[in-house]
Recover the amino acids of this structure.
């Protein structure tokens, strides 16, 4: 029996995807009695086949899908024949749910691209094919459905196959098998269709049963991301994970990445026993010969064929967030079992998924695909996606909500982590703090323009200097005269503005200073990023709070009046949002409290 086949079924709306999978499940006897009864009942209410069971409803599980007659979510099913086991993902066809299609394709070995014989190749056909190619799928079945509606015309089939071949060539798909069929009556699906005697190729099921998917060349050497460090007792330490490539046996020399430490495998432990060999896809616990520092997210790899380690990459990114991508904004990145902070530093171009052309783009919106430069907070062991999906595919998460906003594929490193290292010096931050006789900290004042941040920052510094403290104020306006003079006020520029200031503030705290940062810093994600640069207790978020009407009445620079006249774009509070802190370390109400009283409260909180 051949290895199991994972495939995704995709295409445009109403091409018949759910009906086709329903036909496969029905013919392969993979439908339970209760499912058949549910589908029959649903057919009476929502079906399109009269008294007959609508096989599409075996897949359309959501009520919204049944009522609208479209697939929204990705539905997964398992079935098998005497020759092979199958796992199929029914992907949505509507452009709005393209990100769901990418989810279904991310683990597939093959794509079945469905085309309506009457409509031919559509923009969504090209879109799904390009995404499949981007995700590393090289085998495609072009299923030309509803051939009964065009009287099984061979000329029509040949024209569609030729049109699709041009799309496949551009997307990197190397093996295409076109098959005429009718999902409604099963012709060309599991049995040959009598009206298509002119077609000498296989039925869909015959092809799926016999197609061989060769693993990428990069999956020959052993790699295993560590998912869990297992220490049930002081005498046992094992490293659990699923082997992403190659094979391993006791005695094999391995290296741990990113550290590069070398050792050997002592034992391979599995449930209730041990093994003499494990290979790609096996979940095992490795016991190492020597005591090495190994953590979740590290990669254990063959010593003579190590993985690469880098912290800057070029990647292809499918944007899945409802809000656009912001260059420079901090996100969370998950690559195999490792999670770290990351930011897109540049969008090189956006790909038009219909015609395949690239176009410049300042941002990426929902379902856009772009080529981007990416920087991570720490070095990551990785592989190019084309060599290994597990070590080369990542997702981006919103730092606050944890929702997935992007899915990406590493193409190559921009700078290997070994080229840039932290340089250690004998004089430490603690030495500098003792020399200055103070506890270095960052006081981060955030609030609307006119709320009183600069006034309070000025008074705080005066009081601290009078007490003999060593301080420095980083003010939003002052910094834009030099360090950040190249930045505007777009969302991406604001994110970069805060990133630079946060890094400077961290260096100043390392120097032993008490740093007072006075910036509007309107977005929570950027403020959270800044906090993450500091040791616990060294960063205090101080919300300088005043109602918009109060700030506007003060309007010391006349900016609110200009913003109301649309003379100033992207002005916080008027044409750009301000996200107030949800749990600040200190809140100052400058509408009811004097600046002096606010400063007293800040210093009391420090004491």
């Amino acid at each position: 029996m051949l290895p199991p086949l994972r495939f995704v079924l995709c295409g445009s709306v109403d091409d018949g995807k759910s009906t086709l999978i329903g036909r496969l499940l029905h013919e392969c006897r993979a439908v339970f009695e209760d499912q058949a009864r549910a589908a029959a009942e649903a057919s009476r209410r929502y079906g399109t086949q009269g008294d007959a069971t609508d096989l599409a409803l075996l897949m359309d599980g959501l009520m919204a899908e049944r009522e609208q007659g479209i697939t929204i979510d990705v539905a997964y099913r398992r079935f098998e024949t005497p020759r092979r086991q199958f796992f199929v993902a029914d992907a949505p066809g509507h452009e709005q749910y393209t990100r769901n299609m990418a989810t279904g394709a991310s683990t597939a070995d093959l794509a079945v691209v469905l085309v309506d014989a009457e409509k031919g190749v559509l923009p969504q056909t090209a879109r799904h094919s390009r995404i499949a190619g981007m995700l590393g799928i090289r085998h495609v079945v072009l299923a030309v459905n509803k051939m009964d509606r065009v009287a099984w015309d061979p000329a029509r089939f040949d024209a569609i196959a030729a049109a699709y071949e041009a799309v496949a060539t551009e997307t990197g798909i190397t093996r295409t098998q076109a098959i005429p069929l009718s999902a409604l009556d099963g012709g060309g699906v599991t049995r040959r269709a009598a009206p298509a005697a002119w077609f000498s190729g296989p039925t869909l099921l015959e092809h799926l049963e016999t197609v061989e998917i060769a693993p990428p060349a990069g999956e020959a050497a052993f790699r295993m991301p560590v998912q869990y460090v297992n220490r049930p007792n002081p005498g046992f330490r094992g490293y659990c994970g699923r082997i992403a490539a190659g094979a391993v046996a006791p005695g094999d020399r391995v290296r741990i990445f990113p550290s590069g430490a070398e050792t050997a495998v002592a034992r391979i432990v599995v449930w209730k026993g041990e093994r003499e060999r494990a290979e790609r896809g096996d979940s095992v616990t490795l016991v190492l010969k020597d005591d090495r520092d190994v953590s979740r997210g590290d990669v254990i790899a063959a010593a003579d064929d190590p993985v690469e380690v880098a912290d800057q990459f070029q990647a292809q990114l499918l944007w899945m967030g409802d809000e656009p991508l912001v260059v420079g904004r901090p996100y969370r990145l998950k690559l195999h079992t490792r999670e770290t902070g990351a930011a897109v530093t540049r969008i090189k171009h956006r790909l038009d998924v219909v015609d395949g052309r690239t176009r410049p783009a300042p941002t990426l919106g929902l379902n856009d695909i772009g080529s981007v430069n990416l920087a991570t907070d720490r070095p990551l062991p990785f592989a190019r996606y084309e060599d290994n999906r597990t070590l080369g595919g990542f997702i981006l998460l919103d730092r606050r909500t944890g929702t997935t906003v992007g899915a990406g594929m590493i193409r190559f490193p921009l700078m290997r982590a070994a080229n840039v290292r932290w340089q250690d010096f004998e004089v430490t931050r603690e030495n500098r703090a003792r020399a200055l006789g103070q506890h270095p900290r960052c006081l981060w004042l955030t609030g609307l323009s006119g709320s009183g941040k600069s006034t309070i920052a000025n008074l705080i510094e005066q009081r601290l200097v009078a007490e003999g403290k060593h301080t420095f104020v980083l003010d939003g306006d002052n910094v834009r005269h030099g360090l950040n003079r190249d930045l505007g006020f777009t969302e991406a520029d604001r994110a970069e503005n805060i990133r630079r200031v946060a890094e400077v503030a961290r260096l100043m705290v390392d120097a032993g200073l008490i740093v007072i940062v006075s910036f509007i810093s309107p977005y929570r994600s950027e403020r959270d990023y800044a906090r993450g640069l500091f040791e616990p207790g060294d960063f205090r978020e101080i919300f300088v709070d005043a109602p918009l009407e109060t700030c506007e009445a003060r309007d010391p620079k006349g900016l609110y009046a200009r913003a109301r006249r649309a003379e100033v774009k992207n002005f916080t509070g008027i044409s750009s949002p301000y996200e107030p802190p949800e749990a600040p370390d200190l809140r100052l109400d400058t509408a009811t409290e004097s600046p002096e009283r606010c400063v007293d409260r800040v210093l009391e909180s420090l004491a």
Q: What stands out?
A: Confidence is low (pLDDT under 50) at residues 60-72. The radius of gyration is 30 Å. Residues 432-606 form a domain with the Rossmann fold fold (CATH 3.40.50.300).
